[in-house]
User: What shape does this take?
Amino acid sequence: MSDPNAPIHPTGILVIDKDLNYTSMDVCAIVRGRFRKGGAPKNLKVGHGGTLDPLATGVLVVLVGKATPLCDQIMAGEKEYETTIDLSARSTTDDMEGEKTIIDVPTPPTREKVEAAARALTGRIMQRPPNFSAIKVGGKRAYAEARKGNDVVLAERPVDVHSFDVIEYAWPTVKARIRCGKGTYIRSLARDIGMALGTGGMLTQLRRTRVGKFTIDQAKTLESIDRPLTQNDLRPVDH
Assistant: This one.
């Protein structure tokens, strides 16, 4: 006979609008703590589908309880991003976190050239991940080796970029909307569009607006759910 006083194991999906400077695992830890305050057991499993860097914001799909095995399924869905790229500089991390170098560009590219470079980075392309990434090289994380000053050479790999649309352009800033598949690094796209144009190329802002069927208008901020959480706060796994 089951214990009627045993903690309830919540199961389902929580779509979070991640704020700046939180890691994806930070969000999972906070969500787990709030479910525990709502009566969930200490060993409640909480995971996520698709990592967001600390400097990125937007849709993070948090998986709770028996929903955690859905991680690969969630990560396989198409993702959509709104991004800002600085063509006047490069960075060791391909974003604002790294050491920045200003690039001398005597003649800034026209919008037509920027749009053409973006189109050339769509379809099935070969992409080299950033040196500062979580990919393992010889059993060690690439970012850990890069931070030690060790040379990191990551192999190119195929990724799917469904669209790379320039929304606004005023030198040196490009605002773009990108739809892509699993494993695509938006930082690498920022680097590579700059390489194609003979300019700098580094990410300055990144916001994920969709992961598969989960969109930003469905997402809740951590601040808006700053209270004990229960099963009633979760979306069913079949929705």
Notes: Residues 1-6 have pLDDT under 50 and may be disordered. Residues 1 and 7 are 15 Å apart (CA to CA). The chain is about 20% helix and 30% strand.
